[in-house]
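ERR on first pass: missing label on line 2. Operator R.T. fixed the label and resubmitted. Corrected input:
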Amino acid sequence: MRAEAQHMTAIEDAALRPLGRAGWAFWLLALGLGALVALGIVAYVYQLRNGLGVTGMSDRVFWGVYTANFVAFIGISYGGAVVSAILRITGAGWRAPITRLAEAMAVFSLAIGALFPIIHLGRPDRVWEMFVHGRLASPLMWDMLAIATYLAATVIFLYLPLIPDIAVCRDRIGSSAGFLRRRLYSLLALGWRGLPQQQRLLKWGTTIMAVLIIPIAISVHSVLAFAFSVTSRAGWHSTIFGPYFVVAALFSGVATVILVVVAFRKAYHLEDYIGEKQIHYLSYIMLALGLLYLYFTFSEFLTEGYALDEETQVLYETLLLKNFAPLFWFFIVGGLIVPLALVALPRTRTIPGIALAAALAVGGMWLKRFLIVVPPLARPLAGSDAVSYNPSWTEAAITIGAAAAIPLTIMLFVRFFPILSIWEMEEVAEEPEIQPETPRGLQAEGRLA
Amino acid sequence: MAEVSDKNDQAAPNQKLSRRRLLKGLGAAGLVAAASGALLPLKDLVAAGDADAEAPNDSDIAKHQWVMVIDLRRCDGCEKCMKGCRREHNLPEGQEWIKTLELEDASGQTYYMPVPCQHCEEPPCVNVCPVGATYKVADGAVLVDQDRCIGCRMCMAACPYDARTFNWDDPPPTDDVMGEPTPEFPVPQQKGTAGKCVLCVHNLRFGKLPACVKACTMRAIYIGDLKTDLATNGKQTVKLSDLLKDNDAFHYKEELNTHPRVYYIAGHGQDS
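pass 2 clean. output:
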């Protein structure tokens, strides 16, 4: 019993470590990321003042990186939400130390990604028209409703399991802490005392949210896909776009979870709590999803390319052989084959190897979204040549700023809230987990350790 | 869809016309008509626009069902329609509401195809607009309310004809004061909103020809009315149904089921 209590305090200490004094490395990184975010904001103000003419878009390529970012950022958010939800529902004990980071990442990447449809608007001052004159027949209305629902769901999904941990903060915080911070904790802890009744409600709420968030998440990325596939454009008008987008989102999302977990594990020395096991298991999920995505990509290109109507032929020429071929093949090799091989081969399935695979997958999947949006617009049309689309510095700065905002917001989040789900880890520590059958890869790694 | 065969409906505009002290617009119609030497039919065709009504109601507007017929046998690809349209609507550099495509037919001959908005009966652009800023008017034109458009460009994605444009920057300055822009005559346009061919319904309602029809020296573009079953290219006025039937008129991208209001007559400039 005593050892267990010590263990519990150790978890608390580790989880609360980022709340203490931040080192110079934190501030340096936060400053750097903050500067990028500030640059993005400056670029957006510039765009607001001067209109969308400051972008590289044209009447031909009227959707560009903002649309790609919209899909990519919201996609990333999935990994966090859905993986955490599935692991909760299936009672996978190994999830406990990574759910907090995954769920936080889900909220912040979604909140940032949801800005892009507004950044993309010609008249963002008229967003209210969506409420006054909104039409349910429009895929953009589906987007808005689905994203709003999903955002609310991810916030609740992050917050519910956070309540007992906020109570820990409330109880352990010294009087030296600022009044505001103490007030914040006692407010957000909702009077948590760990009573059986409260425990029961919390479990019930978390389970319901975990079940709900899966269909909600699937609906969001499906309707994102529908905004493309309800049109009659070659390359967009595809019946598999819904599930294709969902798998893309999960693949890039799990890769992002891996990056976040690896980075924060190292930065806050959480190796004792987030083991190699967690990262390996995540990499298996990424591998499975990546293979699924490869399969979807193959299905799409085989069926369309075999029938090859005129418009598809023109599109595939630009995409596979001409203007966009370097980007496309970089995506296939660098974004799918190499990362999947890195994870599949035991030799490279190390933490640096997995992190590299995840980084390639995230980058490659952004590129894929760009290739979904732009080439079907830029390709030669009947009677007119291919057009080029070069994102302007405004688009680049806003994109980089938004990308920097994700790690920055998570960094700030763990300055205020426990980075590990303390109560879940304690729960897992109490009841010995039923070990899944050890895959062969893990035995190999057991030898390494 | 408008029914051409409705006899009562065809008669009604004439009676009304004679009762009303017509029209500022009739003057203009008369000029066009006189020039064409086909006074009466043309008057029927273009003059019934309700000039003395401040805001014409739907049933008045619906008395005409506009269509356009583009005779590719006459088009020589001179792009005067594009120029006329640009001038009429004060379009910025690079924005075209009618585009002349250079295409090649199966026999290898080059032909030119002016493509304005097809004013579809089943417009995909209208379906996808999240705020109802684009809509079909009772006379068949598809218009954009630039006071409501949020600039999401979903309509541009949905349009199979790439007929829609976007105002990326401020419109060029207008020379003369034209009053408040309306969906029928969105000049000057608003930055950050979608634009498109308006079928010059502002002209039609006042008995004037669309800018592209007027500008086409090859007389390849007809404006027609399904209700009166007449069509004019500014020089000749012909029976619309005969024009379509006798020349095997077709729609652009017929297979998409958008049911355009623009008809084409196949050819490669051989009559030019």
